[in-house]
Structure prediction request, 113 residues.
Amino acid sequence: MHEYFRSNPCKYLARAYMQIGEGGQNLALAALSWVEMPNVDLASNLNHLVDVDVGNIIELSRETKKFEKIIYDERTYISGIKGTFVWSVEVKPVFQTVSDSLINQIITDTRQS
Prediction:
């Protein structure tokens, strides 16, 4: 992904993360990213790279001390494209007590249109 952005600089990049659930037990993290590419073709290529697991944008939560060891490695995500904008949301349980149904609901609720 790093090489793609070096060869095809984006116009805009935003990252965010949200803590969802109860901090003591049922906590999940949702990592969000929005990228604006210079044209539709580059946006489409970026969306394809995200979807085929070539890589992703480093999650903002990994740059905080509290969550730096949380790795979004199971690809519970959704992504999309609208014109020159590409967005993605990845969800990772912090504790094993987070159910699959909650993870799927988070993914559904964060869907961009």
Remarks:
- The chain has three helices and four strands.
- The helical segments are 2-7, 40-51, 100-109.
- The first helix runs from residue 2 to 7.
- The chain has a mean pLDDT of 83.
